[in-house]
């Protein structure tokens, strides 16, 4: 069995010596306070005479990987095979020990320095799986990203600069100088905190129907495209594919295709749901 993104609920990095959570990343709602889970796990690990790697509860499992200075805790819905999750946890553990082991052993109480490490965790456990053929679009109404600091902030800005409502996730990956895993992690962060949404790229086999776009937009477009716009809009009945509509009009196909995409973008035409 492979890795299932939807099973992941919560990840925490906990300092071994003092039991402090230095990084917490929630993925889904929990009925139990995550801090209580972290405190419970830390106590069990510290006082157990034998190593404990899995704690099974009624509604979830807690998978644990322990290092010299930190433990990585994953709360996950029950899964038939822990191996792919543990492989990722071990990579996270090796990375945090390598980058921050010394700081964790000489901890001064400031957890802010560990927030950038969130991206390393999310590279292994993205908030969602990505459809590379979908087009991300900015919403302009997201919520604060708690670990948007330093390098994470800079890389999120890079991804946002490539999001123009026309490029697919795959095209953005090709354009950027970051690894595919980093881009997918960053896109999942923007989606998780509602800074972007996704739309499917328009195909000439799609069906479109007229929609109620703001009159001021329609008036402006009519002033630009005149009779061509009126002829085009009159053809959309939700039953005729775009390719047939384009073939029925006496206008340049590239120009008409551009105009159709524009009308969809501004909300004057809407795709008919498939299925």
Describe, in short, the structure shown:
By secondary structure, the chain is α+β, with helices and mostly antiparallel strands.
How is this structure best described in words?
With 275 residues, the protein is of the alpha+beta class. The chain has 3 domains: 107 residues, Beta-Lactamase (2-Layer Sandwich); 67 residues, Arc Repressor Mutant, subunit A, CATH 1.10.10; 65 residues. Helix content is 42%, strand content 19%. The chain is built from 9 helices and 10 strands. The strands form 3 sheets. Strands 2-1-5-4-3 form a 5-stranded antiparallel β-sheet. Strand 1 and strand 2 form a beta hairpin. Helix 4 packs across helix 6. It is elongated. The two termini are 29 Å apart. The mean pLDDT is 89.
